[in-house]
Design a protein that fits this description.
Structural class: mainly alpha
Order of helices and strands: EEHHEEHHHHHHHHHHHHHHHHHHH
Number of helices: 21
Radius of gyration: 20 Å
Shape: globular
Distance between the termini: 24 Å
Largest sheet: 2 strands, antiparallel
Number of domains: 1
Oligomer: single chain
Strand content: under 5%
Number of strands: 4
């Protein structure tokens, strides 16, 4: 069924996204019931990648459950991890080391980007949010929230363990060095939006200048944080090198986080009361991911620098996991450009990446598309500037820089480890 030549599936998805943007106090209901409406429509009148009815939906769920499982495990686990980190009082030591003016906020954003290059970008965003909460006494400008998300996504764009999409490329045969060129654009983007966002924040709420009294670190909680992150990273790298098929068959990264969390309960008990709120945010994101997965996207436009550039804007509202899977099957991309586009592009809207959704669980005031765009306009401009630098300095050269991955068939979703899995 089409309307003016546009499949009704896409119109329904657009209405869901519009509802999320307009009714930002009811985002969970809009996303969940929108997903249900699309699924019912496709069961009755459409199909799922060629398979009609409930059988098609079942097949889709079997294909997507690893992605959904990893997302759920990471979003819930890292909500408790961020609380452990804040309660360890490590954040209270930051005023001692950071500059006392806007440069302190800028250094914080650079730290988040660096952390995300080797950690999960959800974790980087939530740890950054915890640090900002202390440094700015709970008053964080929405433009700075957008910058935290953008820094976490930019930091992961050039690392095969920093973002779900780059991990997908790694599994498909793209070498780690082939996506590293994304940092040429990501570093410029961070420099641009970082300075503006830090000045925004300093004018809104100055950074804390002194430590709040004598700080006593809780080394037990800090140890829990380190253990959780270390086990997640080790699981991701070890399985990618030794048994990548296991990562596509089971949500191993999400499971690793929860194994670490449960093993450390005797050492420090998590704040379990945080889970209901984190679960609501997780269901919201999973609903949007499922909406995107049900769209009848069979192929992307021909691979080119302009197509990759446009995918950055698309990934702000459309899950970047299926976009990356389609690009890998199609081939012909310079993978560093694609990694930058789909990894960083989702930062432009709060629900455009899993890092943004996770951070807005901590800061509900961020759940307004208009406020995010007004306050975080520098993120979108930074994306364009970063891509321009990629073109000028690196140059689009799919054959020279990347070529086609050695294993272009990507039938299973990639493990959602260091995500941005977007909507």
């Amino acid at each position: 069924m089409t309307v003016a030549g546009i499949p009704l599936d896409f119109i329904l998805f657009a209405l869901v996204l519009l509802g999320v943007a307009v009714f930002h106090h009811h985002t969970l209901r809009v996303a969940f019931w929108g997903m249900v409406a699309i699924a019912v429509y496709k069961i009755l009148f459409g199909d799922f990648n060629g398979t009609p009815g409930v059988a098609g939906l079942t097949q889709l769920l079997h294909h997507e459950w690893v992605t959904l499982g990893n997302l759920l495990g990471l979003l819930l686990g890292f909500a408790l991890l961020a609380d452990h980190f804040e309660r360890s009082h490590a954040t209270d030591l930051l005023p001692r080391f950071l500059p006392d003016d806007w440069k302190g906020g800028f250094v914080l954003l650079v730290m988040i980007a660096v952390i995300s290059s080797f950690l999960d970008n959800i974790a980087a965003a939530m740890i950054g949010g915890a640090m900002a909460h202390v440094l700015y006494k709970g008053r964080v400008h929405i433009g700075f929230l957008a910058a935290i998300v953008a820094a976490s996504n930019a930091g992961g764009a050039g690392s095969v363990v920093g973002d779900t999409t780059t991990t997908m490329m790694w599994i498909a045969g793209v070498r780690p060095g082939q996506v590293f060129e994304a940092y040429a654009g990501a570093s410029v983007a961070v420099l641009f939006f970082g300075v503006i966002a830090a000045r925004q924040q300093q004018a809104f709420q100055p950074i804390m200048k002194d430590n709040p009294g004598e700080v006593r670190l809780d080394y037990g909680r800090l140890g829990v944080v380190v253990f959780m992150l270390a086990l997640a990273i080790a699981t991701n790298i070890f399985l990618n090198l030794r048994n990548p098929q296991l990562l596509t068959d089971w949500p191993m990264i999400g499971l690793a986080v929860w194994v670490a969390l449960l093993l450390t309960v005797p050492l420090r008990r998590p704040t379990w009361s945080l889970l209901p709120g984190a679960l609501r945010g997780s269901i919201f994101l999973l609903s949007l991911v499922m909406c995107a997965a049900m769209m009848p996207v069979k192929a992307l436009p021909a691979a080119s620098w302009s197509t990759a550039f446009g995918l950055g804007f698309v990934s702000a509202v459309f899950d970047n996991i299926p976009l990356t899977a389609l690009a890998l099957r199609q081939g012909g991309y310079d993978w560093g450009f694609l990694a930058y586009a789909v990894g960083f592009g989702g930062s432009m809207i709060w629900f455009g990446s899993s890092a943004g959704v996770a951070l807005c669980n901590m800061y509900p005031q961020g759940r307004s598309v208009l406020s995010w765009l007004r306050g975080g306009w520098h993120v979108a401009v930074g994306y364009v500037l970063g891509y321009a630098v990629l073109m000028a300095v690196v140059g689009w050269d799919p054959d020279g820089h990347a070529g086609k991955p050695s294993a272009p068939s990507v039938e299973s979703p990639a493990p959602v480890q260091t995500l941005p899995a977007k909507p």
